[in-house]
Specification:
The protein has 872 residues and is α/β, with parallel strands linked by helices. The strands form 10 sheets. A 4-stranded antiparallel sheet has the order 6-5-14-16. A 4-stranded mixed sheet has the order 10-11-9-12, with helices on one face. α16 crosses α17 and α17 packs parallel to α19. It has 28 helices and 29 strands.
């Protein structure tokens, strides 16, 4: 035991010192010679776009908890670190940085710009590492990877070429989500949607024969300039006579047909819809079926094209305004209605996307999806919680071809080359010297880069050395558990499963643990791009890393996203203080004892060991179910409310009154440090050292295992705890001071149990200020009491009243007043619950909370009436 034990816990010095020691000892690098079962996690690589958010802290904390837990199970635990180059996101950030200097990427040119991004990436890789270190993450930095490093770049090219040669990668003309700000195609999963109030414009399209017009409704009048047909449903009798006729496109004077197609929604607008093949995915498919022309009226920069006639070179929204005015002036705008729509925007720069017909590289995904669906269906890969299987299956069974190309400079350049002499196009892992068909060296590489996720989907095996057959790949693949937010189940999780099965013939991981999102007060996901996350490292400066980690765990259940509150981080800090202060108390009670189970345990020690045995089993079972939230809650309650409130108090009184040693309490404390270590590694390691529990790190210790003979809790101690708790409650309810000695009457049929309680006056006096215990047959009057499984406990009040220490009339009035307040609240809640609008329209969480509040208040009123009856 170290001699000096500071009065207060100061995390700043301790956390830095501990992590430096762990790093110097290479604590988190597995032994080169495998001797045990392995547990492997690969980090979801954070983007090198900036500092980590609270969401990253939660994600990495969960991984750290799992790694440390499995190390305590005697496994070789490995956590592989790394970062993602985050193509579009990082390029946007660096472009913004250049804009502050009055420059653009075009001013620098491709090579110099890419060098600038490398500088940014390397700087932020270092920042991210320092942040993860401050959190205490048990990462093996000797295995650090980056999605743009040489090894992973080769893996990316290898995969591309294999898919290309299998005919799964092709170049095609499709409608894509185009970002006018980033000047690139983006995937549907990289767009964000926001409900916006807009308008629905009803426009008259004159019939060519002058016999009238068709009215078409649209939310985007600027795209009407590119219409090449008007479509109606073939079974819509309102328009059957018009099919085959032609109309004159307003403002453009172009002759376009009226066609019938089954995809038309008769309920939308008038049932007649404009067809703009260049700017709408559904319209493109209609055009393919009906051999319609495709007219581009909006350019890649969001400006109207030459094909837009008089509106050319105008911003798309400025053109919209003018088009509406011109339609109205010509009597072609029938009416305008308010309309709420879901607007899609680029998730990186938040610019509204433009659906655009564009030639891009695509990958056929259905052949790869089928085995990945089966792997999850058959339980080869398990999801926790299981409900996320439904979302996975829905996306996979409706999977679309993946748009791979991005019109960016930062990222993996597409390894496709075209010969300028013979026009031969081919893919190559290595940069080719000559055309394989005509041997000329005049080759052009495709200028586009690959979607960021094309490197990320290879992460579990590429970080271990694939495509080379490395020792790490043999030893550590497949990995054990993937930790991920549910929001990237399509972007990343599903694709990794497909890639693992396709390229290694094996699943990439055994299990996926999905966690909830931490959201801001507006319900938005915390992200770098929104800038809505409190700086987690400011919180570490304020409260310490362990407090932040534990506080976050206590607000993040598995099933529901949560709103962030700093108050919960304070709960984490309070627990650190409790752990430290309880350790100081235990240290003050020690002589030369060792942490062990006693050869002659007292009933109180047996009770404490039985509670520990239950905790070790329950928490281990929660880990097996990947329910770390409830594991943290259980440990919080066990340590604070069972060990500190009872076990340690029993040990303190036994030491003071009977001279009993504290070896059992030390054993429970040592075991508690091991169970808490995955959640709060710094303070537990510090206390482990201070008590010199072993000559090795806590990380390399073992999960506690209480001997079988101590697993049964003595019933007499359970009764003792019941009695003390009941008396404390009665004191509180009647306002009797904690330090005022009181007598109790006990009704107990079991003679041995009563004698045991009588023999424990040390605990009854020390913990409940009971100065006298009498065996009774009936309830005394006046009194307050409680009924237990084993009997009844009463607090006689006559003596307190006669001595002037209790005013029954005043207490009765106070209780009656409290009953009145609660009944008024109950009435208000019942009125609310009888309101069908409230029950049907309010969020389920609010309705459930009101029901729980009603139940709590009704129980409390019933209890207070019993209390009032005892005073009468």
């Amino acid at each position: 035991m170290q001699a000096e034990f500071p009065k207060t816990y100061d995390p700043k010095g301790i956390e830095g010192r501990q992590f430096t020691a762990w790093t110097d000892e290479k604590l988190f690098t597995p032994d080169p010679e495998p001797r045990k079962e392995s547990f492997i996690i690969v980090i979801p690589p954070p983007n090198v776009t900036g500092k980590l958010t609270l969401g990253h802290v939660l994600d990495n904390e969960l991984q750290d908890i799992l790694v440390r837990f499995h190390s305590l199970q005697g496994k070789d635990a490995l956590w592989v670190p790394g970062q993602d180059h985050a193509g579009i996101a990082t390029q946007v950030v660096v472009e913004r940085m250049l804009a502050k200097e009055g420059k653009t990427k075009d001013d620098l040119g491709r090579e110099e710009f890419v060098n600038k991004v490398w500088e940014w990436a390397n700087e932020h890789r270092g920042i991210i590492r320092r942040q993860l270190d401050r959190m205490g993450c048990a990462l093996d930095w000797s295995r650090e990877r980056f999605t743009m490093d040489d090894g992973l770049s080769r893996a990316v090219r290898t995969v591309f070429v294999r898919l290309y040669e299998k005919g799964l990668i092709y170049r095609g003309l499709r409608i894509v989500n185009w970002c006018p700000r980033c000047h690139t195609a983006i995937s549907g999963e990289e767009t964000e949607y926001e409900n916006k109030q807009s308008s629905l414009w009803y426009i008259r399209y004159p019939l060519e024969d002058g016999s009238g017009h068709l009215t078409v409704a649209t939310t985007r009048p600027e795209t009407m300039l590119g219409d090449t047909a008007v479509a109606v449903h073939p079974e819509d009798e309102r328009y059957s006579a018009y099919v085959g006729k032609h109309i004159i496109l307003p403002l453009m004077g172009r002759r376009i047909p009226v066609i019938a197609d089954e995809v038309v929604q008769r309920e939308f607008g008038t049932g007649a819809v404009k067809v703009t093949p260049y700017h709408d995915a559904a319209d493109f498919e209609i055009a393919q079926r009906h051999d319609l022309a495709k007219v581009k009226v909006i350019n890649e920069d969001g400006v109207m094209s030459e094909e837009a006639g008089a509106y050319a070179s105008k911003d798309r929204y400025a053109a919209r305004k003018e088009i509406v005015q011109d339609l109205e002036a010509q009597g072609l705008l029938e009416r305008t209605e308010p309309y709420q729509l879901s607007a899609a925007a680029c998730s990186r720069c938040h610019t509204v996307i433009e659906p655009l017909l564009s030639e891009q590289w695509f990958c056929r995904m259905k052949p790869q999806a089928e085995p990945a669906i089966k792997a999850v269906e058959d339980g080869l890969i398990r999801f926790y919680p299981e409900r996320w299987r439904n979302l996975y299956f829905h996306w996979m069974r409706n999977i679309q071809d993946w748009c791979l190309s991005r019109q960016l400079w930062w990222g993996h350049r597409i390894p496709v080359y075209t010969c300028k002499k013979c026009s031969h196009q081919f893919a190559s892992v290595d940069e080719p010297d000559a055309c394989p068909k005509c041997a000329t060296s005049d080759l052009i590489q495709d200028p586009d880069v690959l979607d960021t996720w094309f490197s990320s989907w290879l992460w579990p095996f590429s970080v271990l050395g694939w495509p080379e057959d490395t020792q790490d790949l043999k030893r550590f693949y497949p990995t054990s558990t993937l930790v991920s937010g549910w929001d990237i189940i399509y972007l990343w999780v599903a694709r990794m499963i497909m890639a693992g099965l396709e390229f290694t013939g094996s699943k990439p991981f055994d299990a996926v643990m999905f966690h909830v999102m931490i959201r801001d007060e507006r319900g938005r996901k915390m992200s770098k791009s929104l800038g809505n996350s409190p700086d987690p490292f400011d919180l570490i400066d304020k409260y310490g890393a362990d407090a932040l980690r534990f506080g976050l765990m206590l607000i993040t259940p598995r099933e529901q996203d949560v709103l962030y509150s700093e108050e919960r981080i304070k709960v984490g800090r309070n627990f650190m203080n409790k752990l430290w202060n309880s350790a100081r108390l235990l240290a003050s009670l020690m002589d030369e004892e060792k942490a062990r189970t006693p050869t002659d345990p007292s009933p109180a020690e047996r009770w404490m060991l039985a509670r520990l045995a239950r905790a070790q089993d329950e928490v281990k079972d929660l880990f097996a179910r990947h329910d770390l939230y409830n594991a943290a809650k259980y440990l919080y309650n066990f340590y604070w409310h069972e060990f500190c409130d009872w076990g340690l108090e029993f040990a303190k009184l036994a030491k003071r009154e009977r001279g009993r040693g504290v070896s059992a309490a030390l054993y429970v404390f040592k075991s508690s440090l091991a169970m808490l270590h995955p959640f709060i590694p710094f303070i537990t390691e510090e206390l482990w050292e201070r008590f010199t529990f072993a000559d090795h790190r806590l990380y390399h210790d073992h999960w506690p295992q209480v001997p079988e003979e101590f697993r049964q809790s003595p019933p007499e101690v359970e009764a003792l705890v019941d009695l003390i708790t009941a008396v404390r409650t009665m004191r509180s309810e009647l306002g009797i001071p904690k330090d005022m000695p009181v007598p109790v009457d006990v009704v107990a049929a079991d003679e041995a149990l009563y004698k045991s309680l009588e023999g424990n006056m040390t605990y009854l006096s020390g913990l409940a200020k009971i100065n006298e215990m009498n065996r009774a047959r009936n309830k005394p009057h006046p009194s307050t009491g409680a009924v237990m499984d084993w009997g009844e406990v009463y607090l006689p009040l006559a003596g307190l009243v006669s001595s002037g220490k209790l005013n029954i009339e005043a207490e009765s009035a106070r209780i009656s007043k409290e009953i009145g307040k609660l009944e008024a609240e109950i009435k208000n809640i019942k009125v609310k619950m009888d309101n069908k609008d409230f029950v049907n329209k309010a969020p389920d969480s609010i309705v459930s909370a009101e029901r729980e509040r009603l139940e709590t208040y009704e129980k409390k009123v019933a209890h207070l009436r019993e209390l009032l009856e005892g005073l009468a």
